[in-house]
Design brief:
The chain is α+β, with helices and mostly antiparallel strands. It contains 19 helices and 12 strands. A hairpin with a 6-residue loop joins strand 2 and strand 3. The structure holds protoporphyrin IX containing FE. The site of protoporphyrin IX containing FE has 26 residues, from helix 2, helix 10, helix 11 and helix 19. It comes from Daldinia eschscholtzii.
Length: 429
């Protein structure tokens, strides 16, 4: 937690009064995020996001020629995710699309703000932060109250709670805007690349794609629109995780492979830790204030833990039946294998800092995947399956890899045969 608090407190836009109190109210804001990222509220948030995604998909007869899948998806999901937070009606990122670039340009340089590495800070990063801050100040000063008062408001409960708490604590509109920028960053920075890689792994493996197409049907119902020949496909957005185990397994295996960033901790008190026993025992003193970085990559890709070819995508890897069955039969060896896997798999971090947005992020990736596999063909421009792009490591504040900047990410998207006359709907609406 201290890192997030530092991250916000370091924002130039925060008033001295808010800077003083931010650390105190931060745990309540985190608690509120966790509380609202469950049940009906979570599904409503995901429906807002999915409804924002659907209009970008091609109509019947259109081949969408995309120059760069990463930029395309990134920009659309940035708008969808910010609409999920601030409501589709008044979302500044929807009203002013230039803010999407402002976010990603800011993201490209943000370590300076989190770690006080002034050497890597730059004026441009601060400028993009200020641009987004101005837009949010305008939103909170002019539309927010009417937006939450409207009877069909879709401003997320977690934002309403956080803003109410901050206002009660004496935050001015600039302070509220600054602290919401941290929520925006948390919501977008890993969610978007996770959704990207889930699509990339799926559409680069035709056998996997075929399996997912079959499984995805379980979470869609159809309604004829009169006798027009047009049908509505309604995505059961609140049931994908239950009805589509293969989509879930795809997401989990993707996360194992692409979550290769660092977890951050700071030592709060001088602490001794030991490893080994007897003469081999070694003890270390971790001094108060020391930063500790825990790399997820080696753990997520260890052959000792994941078995053969840990760099390869295997749909059943996390649900390795032999391990699961032996575990259920109480066999000790399997128990320890299953335990090691649990411990070694942490795409959302762990402990007190466990990501509070994990359920939203998973639902966003799953619903995007479901619509794409069911309704659309996505291929390289020459009609062959996508080639999985090589990785660039994530920034220091992020945990998920990015596609390499030189990767060929051109794709064509068109409606699948049999899905030409489909109108998409979302349930719950
Ligand atoms: C696939 C998408 C996501 C991934 C991979 C991800 C991953 C992580 C990781 C690894 C951490 C650090 C946990 C630790 O240190 O143990 C974290 C923290 C956090 N995440 Fe996420 N996250 C995602 C989506 C989201 C979303 C949608 C939100 C929206 C609210 C969010 C909000 C946060 C916040 C506020 C923290 C800081 C928690 C704290 O310090 O107490 N994340 N996330």
């Amino acid at each position: 937690m201290p890192f997030v608090v530092d991250f916000v407190k370091r924002m130039d836009e925060l008033s001295p009064a808010a800077r003083g109190i931010y650390g105190e109210i931060h745990p309540q804001v985190m608690q509120s995020i966790s509380t609202h990222m469950t049940g009906k509220q979570l599904k409503r948030m995901n429906s807002v996001q999915l409804k924002e995604f659907l209009p970008y998909l091609p109509e019947n007869g259109v081949v969408l020629e995309i120059e760069n899948l990463w930029f395309w998806l990134r920009d659309i999901l940035t708008v969808g995710t910010t609409s999920m937070l601030f409501g589709a009606r008044d979302n500044p990122w929807k009203k002013h699309p230039s803010l999407v670039n402002a976010y990603w340009n800011y993201e490209a340089g943000d370590p300076s703000r989190r770690f006080n590495l002034t050497a890597v800070g730059n004026r441009r990063t601060n400028m993009h932060h200020a641009t987004m801050h101005d837009a949010l100040v305008e939103y909170f000063a002019t539309c927010y109250d009417s937006s939450i008062a409207s009877k069909d408001s879709d401003v997320a409960e977690m934002i309403r709670d956080a803003v109410a708490l901050q206002r009660r604590s004496g935050f001015n509109v600039g302070d509220v805007a600054a602290s919401q920028l941290a929520i925006i960053h948390g919501s977008i920075v890993s969610t978007v690349p996770t959704a990207f890689w889930t699509l990339a792994y799926t559409f680069s493996q035709p056998e996997l794609l075929a399996k997912l197409r079959e499984n995805a049907l379980a979470a869609v119902t159809f309604k004829d629109i009169g006798d027009t020949g047009v049908r509505q496909a309604i995505v059961l957005n609140d049931q994908i995780d239950v009805l589509c185990p293969l989509l879930v397994a795809t997401l989990h295996e993707t996360q194992r492979l692409v979550s290769i960033g660092l977890l951050h901790r700071r030592v709060l008190e001088d602490t001794q830790v030991s490893e080994g026993i007897g003469e081999a025992k070694r003890t270390y003193l971790l001094k108060k204030g020391t930063a500790i970085f825990l790399a997820s990559g080696p753990s997520h890709r260890s052959d000792q833990i994941w078995g053969e070819a840990p760099d390869e995508f295997r749909l059943d890897r996390l649900q390795d039946n032999a391990v699961v069955q032996a575990y259920e039969n109480g066999q000790e060896k399997a128990k320890s294998a299953a335990r090691s896997r649990n411990k070694a798999y942490f795409p959302f971090g762990g402990g007190k800092e466990l990501c509070p947005g994990r359920n939203f992020a998973a639902s966003e990736a799953l619903s995007t995947l479901l619509v794409m596999v069911l309704g659309f063909d996505m291929s390289s421009p020459d009609g062959t399956p996508l080639k999985l792009p090589s990785f660039s490591p994530p920034k220091m504040t992020a945990s998920v890899a990015r596609p390499h900047k030189d990767a060929d990410l051109r794709v064509n998207i068109k409606r699948r045969v049999g899905w030409e006359n489909i109108i998409w709907g979302v349930s719950p609406d």
